[in-house]
Amino acid sequence: MTLRSPIVLDSDPGIDDALALQYLLGTGLWDLKAYTSVGGNLPAEQTYLNARALTRAMRIDADVPVHRGTGRPLTRLPYTSASAFHGKAGLGNETLPDSTAAHLPESSAQALLRLSRDYEGELTVCATGPLTNVAIALLEDPAFAHRVKKLVFMGGAAQVPGNVTPVAEFNIWADPDAAEVVMSSGIPFTMVDLDASLRWLFRPADLAAVEAAGAGTALAARLLRVYMDAYRRHGGGDACPLHDPLAVGVCADESFITVAEGAVIVESASELTRGKTVFIPSAAQQVYYADSPVLTSRRAVTGRVALGPGPRDFVKDFVATLPQWPGVG
Ligand SMILES: [Ca+2]
User: Fold this and answer.
1) Where would I find the Inosine/uridine-preferring nucleoside hydrolase domain in this sequence (predicted)?
2) Which portions of the chain are predicted below pLDDT 70?
3) Is 115 helix (H, G, I), strand (E, B) or coil?
4) Of the listed 67, 86, 234, 243, which one is catalytic?
């Protein structure tokens, strides 16, 4: 038996977050130490309830603790939920039963800090919502950056347009201050951005395959159908991206994306460009007339940034992996 690696999934469920959880379990590669919720697609209280319900739907509520995220983002900028894509309560048309587990007093950020000490040098953190919890952990204890093995997060748009504004991706836009805390911290990060996630599209034939896989993927199939309808309504055609599952996939195998090393600086001061992820490739020649102080101080703090899809077919892996962990409901 292979030893499964410790991971925390930090999410704002959210349809694609729900799919990411089932996919993560289906890979069999991970020892999920906690499911930490964060506000994002919906406000923090709702994503917490959704996270609890999803652990029950995935039959892990007795084993995987769910923690509640902070009530507000770090940013003081106004916020809008993404219920147009995810449904009024965040999980399409579903009303799932609550977990039977007790509510835990430990917050998401506290759980991240504790687990980073318990599994120092081994813990992967996969964030599929705004980076509020990770930022709070870093603000409380900057050494968190050096205790985790890596942070893989879904968010940003390095060289492509945004999806919530012309220049910003939703997760970063929702809490740009948190994202800047994270990406300036020195934490080893991989940014799974729209550059990659919009290039792996889930199509009607893939939905048919998930539906044909039986009762264990029935909930996922219903969620995917709602998600595809939302993309169709918003001009996305017949396909939908798999943003959050892709981030989980990249935790195990970077060949689902093409990556480059570089700094990412997050804009939070401007209303127009709020949440824009300014990517500076490490390999770039110096082409600027003058460096701003922020460029000078930040360009040395780098991470790995997705610039497109990689050679390994992510959608194929997703469709094959999901049925490996049958859910209920
Ligand atoms: Ca999400």
Assistant:
1) 7-279
2) 1-2, 287
3) helix
4) 243
Closest CA to 58 of 247, 325, 321: 325
| CA–centroid distance, residue 129 to ligand 1 (Å) | 4
Q: What is the pLDDT of residue 2?
A: 65
Ligand 1 centroid from CA 289, angstroms: 38
In a domain, 329, yes or no: no
Residues with CB under 5 A from ligand 1 (ion): 12, 14, 17, 128-129, 244
Q: What is the Å distance from ligand 1's center to 9 Cα?
A: 11
* Annotated catalytic residue 86: no
Given a contact cutoff of 8 angstroms between Cβ atoms, the answer to whether 55 and 104 are in contact is: no
Q: Are strands 5-11 and 30-37 parallel, antiparallel or unpaired?
A: parallel
Q: Tens digit of pLDDT for each residue in 76-127?
A: 888 888 888 899 899 999 999 999 999 999 999 999 999 999 999 999 999 9
Domain CATH number, residue 253:
3.90.245.10
Structure tokens at 203: 């199509």
The total of structural domains in the chain comes to 1
Tell me how far the alpha carbon of residue 111 lies from the centroid of ligand 1, in angstroms: 19
Residue 265 forms part of a structural domain: yes
